């Protein structure tokens, strides 16, 4: 009975590892990996472009959203994409700190939810893809 439980745990760990490796292979390049907005004024505006490329020949749906302390200040031009090897996702990320934003450096992250087929079922995985740093002066 104990051998069967250990075998089940090992099998589960292998399935989890294969899902994680599939996720890494699908969205393998995020450029830039860090967006650093310097010298942004309170109530100001800053913008940059992010490109996500994939090694998959098939279209892979993904969603991107901001999380963290300044997530409410972050605007994404688009947050839902289909990417493949021949079709990268390009989108603008903007930050608009409020007039009463504290001075100094703040940080948030962009995360992606990937959706991919695994044995004819749809699987999702969430990964951090980018750090947004904001220096308010």
Description:
There is one protein chain. The protein is α+β, with helices and mostly antiparallel strands. 18% of the residues lie in helices and 54% in strands. It contains one helix and nine strands. It has a five-stranded mixed β-sheet. It has a four-stranded antiparallel β-sheet with strand order 1-3-7-5. It is elongated and about 50 Å long. Residues 1-27 have low confidence and may be disordered.
Q: What is the H/E order?
A: HEEEEEEEEE
Q: For the CA atoms, what is the radius of gyration?
A: 19 Å
Q: In terms of structural class, how would the helical and strand content be classed?
A: alpha+beta
Q: Got a strand count?
A: 9
Compute the separation of the termini in Å: 64 Å
- Spans of at least 5 consecutive residues whose pLDDT stays below 50 are 1-27
Strand content: over 45%
> Number of helix segments?
1
Query: What is the helix fraction of residues, given as a range?
Result: 10-25%
Largest sheet: 5 strands, mixed
Strand sequence of the main sheet, in spatial order? 2-9-8-4-6
Mean pLDDT figure: 75
Categorize the overall geometry: elongated
